[in-house]
Design brief:
With 129 residues, the chain is mainly α. It is built from five helices and no strands. Helix 4 runs antiparallel to helix 5. The longest helix is centred in the middle third of the chain and has 30 residues, at 62-91. The two termini are 27 Å apart.
Length: 129
């Protein structure tokens, strides 16, 4: 999980620093890296399934498995990002800010990358039973 947090934090943070985008540099350590770490943990835990992987995750083609999991994670992250960006300002004292609007993009992109990397790496370490 440390790698799932550090890699996007460093790359997005460096991009924010080089391009002078302060909001990207801040998001790199919060919504981008945080989402990547959480998604990597959840997908990895789901794939391992208590040490007994689900049969279909081992037998389905690698690309299909990756696509199914990535689409699922992106959909969930997009819904969460949109919900959070709208709900927080409407129901709490948190004002509508550009940072909240970034969630609509940061969460799905981070989820897609983390899911794809974890799934491909996991599949490369398993053998078909």
């Amino acid at each position: 999980m440390l790698t799932a947090y550090a890699a996007p934090a460093l790359t997005a943070g460096a991009a924010g620093a080089v391009t002078g985008q302060r909001d990207l540099a801040v998001a790199a350590c919060t919504s981008i890296a945080g989402t990547s770490a959480v998604v990597a943990f959840l997908v990895g835990t789901w794939l391992r399934h208590g040490g007994q992987p689900r049969r279909w995750t081992l037998t389905s083609p690698r690309g299909v498995l990756t696509a199914v999991l990535a689409i699922t994670a992106v959909g969930a992250a997009a819904l969460l990002g949109c919900f959070t960006a709208q709900w927080l300002p409407a129901h709490t004292p948190v004002p509508a800010t550009p940072w909240l609007e970034r969630l609509r993009v940061d969460l799905p992109v981070s989820a897609a990358l983390a899911t794809t990397i974890v799934t491909l790496r996991w599949r490369s370490t398993t053998t078909t039973a």
